[in-house]
Amino acid sequence: MGERNSGSKSSRWCLQGMTALVTGGSRGIGYAIVEELAQLGATVHTCSRNEAELNESLKEWSTKGYRVTGSVCDVTSRVNREELIATVSSQFNGKLNILVNNVGTNVQKQTLDLTAEDFAFLINTNLESAFHLSQLAYPLLKASEAASIIFISAIAGVVATNLASVIYSAAKGAINQVTKNLACEWARDNIRTNCVAPGPIRTPLLEKHCTEDTLMNAVISKTPLGRIGEAEEVASLVAFLCLPAASYITGQTICVDGGFTVNGLNLF
Ligand code: NDP
After folding, report:
1. How far apart are CA 171 and CA 193, in angstroms?
2. Where is the chain membrane-spanning (predicted)?
C-alpha cells in the first residue's frame, strides 16, 4: 500500500513534497490549516469568494515563505467547483495528496423559521460542495498514491445544540457518515478519509453567531477546558491526520472541543 508507515522518523512527521487543496482558506480555521500544512512542507492551493481578502492572505503567506496559491471560487457553484479542480490539476500535474473540505456556514434560526432557500443554501454549502469536490478530486487523489481527505464537520453534527440550526447540524451529521463510506470505498485507492469536528472556535463565523456575552459564557461553562478553542488547535489535528505517521487512521470523526461533547452533568 502506497502510504505504509515505512519512512524515516522525520519523513513520517512532515508533508514535504505533498500537495494540498484547502477550501475556504482566507480566514478562520481554513487559514490556520493552510499555514499548518505549509509549515510542514506541503504546497497548498486555497480558495474563497472574496478576492481582496484572499489576496491579503496570500501576501502574508508569501512573506512567511510558504508555498501557497489561491483562486476565487464559490464552492456552492457546480461550475466553480469544476474550475477549481481543473486549476488544481494543472498546477499539481494531475496529482493531489490532501483535500481539506473546510468551507461551511450556519444560518442561525429556529426550526420553524427556516425557509426552503435556507435548506438549499445550507445543504449545498456544508454537504453537497464537499461531496462533489471529493468526487471531482478522486482521480487526482488516486494518482498521488498516498492521499487524505479531511472533512471539517462540527460538534453540532454529533450532539444537538441550538447554537446551530437543525439543517446545519444535519448536513454536518451527514458529512460524518460520508467520511465512513468514502474511507471504506476508497481505501483500495490509498485514499484515507477522516473528519474533524470542532467545538466553538474563535473565528469570524463564531463571532457572527455568538455575539452576546451570556451566550459565550454558557458555551464556556459547558466546556471542561473552560475556554473557546483557537483555529490553530483544529489545524494541528487536521495536519496530523494527513501525515504519513497517521497512515492507519481512516473513517474517523474526531472532536476538537475542549471536552464539550463528553461532558455530562457536573454538579459538584
Ligand atoms: P469563517 O466564516 O470564519 O471562514 C470561512 C472561510 O470559508 C472563509 O475563508 C470564507 O471566505 C470561505 N467561504 C465561505 N463560504 C464559501 C463559499 N461558498 N465558497 C468558497 N469559500 C467560502 O468560518 P470558520 O473558520 O469558523 O469555519 C470553518 C469550518 O469549520 C466550517 O465548515 C464550519 O462549519 C466549521 N466549524 C466552525 C466552528 C467555529 O466555532 N468557528 C465550530 C464548528 C465547525 P469567503 O467568505 O470570502 O468566501
Report:
1. 17
2. 149-171
How many CA atoms lie less than 13 Å away from 208 in the CB half-sphere? Answer: 9
Q: Ligand 1: residues whose CB is within 6 Å?
A: 24-30, 47-50, 53, 73-76, 102-105, 125, 152, 154, 198, 200-201, 203-206
Residue type, 83: E
Q: What is the pLDDT of residues 44-85, one digit of tens each?
A: 999 999 999 999 999 999 999 999 999 999 999 999 999 999
Contact 243, 41 (CB under 8 A): no
**Is 31 among the residues known to form the active site?**
no
In sequence order, what E strands does the chain have? 19-23, 43-48, 68-72, 98-101, 147-152, 191-198, 253-256
Residues in the chain predicted with pLDDT less than 70, given as ranges, are 1-7
Q: Is 19:95 a contact under the CB 8 Å cutoff?
A: yes
Look at ligand 1, atom 5, and give the residue with the nearest C-alpha: 24
Sort 210 into a burial class: Cβ within 10 Å, 0-12 / 13-18 / 19+.
middle
> How many other C-beta atoms are found inside a 10 Å radius of the C-beta of residue 11?
16
Region 19-201+231-254: CATH code: 3.40.50.720
Cα–Cα distance between 36 and 241 in angstroms, integer? 12
Q: How far apart are CA 202 and CA 232, in angstroms?
A: 10
CA of 207 from ligand 1 middle (Å) equals 12
Q: Residue with C-alpha cell 505533498? A: 18
User: Which residue, 234, 243, 247, is CA-closest to 151?
Assistant: 234
